[in-house]
Description:
- It contains seven helices and six strands.
- By secondary structure, it is of the alpha/beta class.
- The protein is globular.
- The protein binds ligand FNR.
Amino acid sequence: xxxxxxTYLLAISGSLRAxxxxxxxxxxxxxxxxxxxxxxxxxxxxxxxxxNPDLDGDGAVLPQPVAxxxxxxxxxxxxxxxxxxxxxxxxxALKNALDWLVSGPEIIYKPISLLNASPRxxxxxxxxxxxxxxxxxxxxxxxxxxxxxxxxxxxxxxIVKDDxxxxxxxxxxxxxxxxxxxxxxxxxxxxxxx
Length: 194
Ligand code: FNR
């Protein structure tokens, strides 16, 4: 897909649970993507400090976990976010991470796949889509899907073995990959470098 050093997809689970169904969904995507695409799971969501614009402006020194997170986002060809819904909202840890990206250039024009391990979680999915559009990302419609995983104790291997789930995940992955060349062209227009 990409013609530059940005060759991985960054996967972010909005759940901090050790047995998270959203994280398993992302691990399943990683299994399906290999060896064509590298999927890197971001593991630092719980270590990010609370967003504070005072730490994010001119002359401020970004906290180290934030700097590392922004670098991971910057280097990705696309993002895949899979998140639960809590009380009809986006989990605070995930919204906090997105807030740290608002004023930087790293996420601009980035193609995004929004996954969801529970088709009931429509409020969080809609709120995430609104936030990400506001941040000038490109939501890839065919790569935004909810799959019935939550509550079924399916791990990544079981998800991949399920024909219906695998077919939908592969379609989402292909749609996301197809969106990356246009992203790189727009990045060159914006930043003047590949
Ligand atoms: C939930 N869940 C939930 N689901 C939903 O569709 N609407 C909601 O408002 C809520 N609220 C909610 C609150 C709290 C405190 C918990 C713990 C759970 C269910 C939750 O979103 C669902 O089980 C996710 O699929 C869990 O994701 P992980 O942690 O397995 O990735």
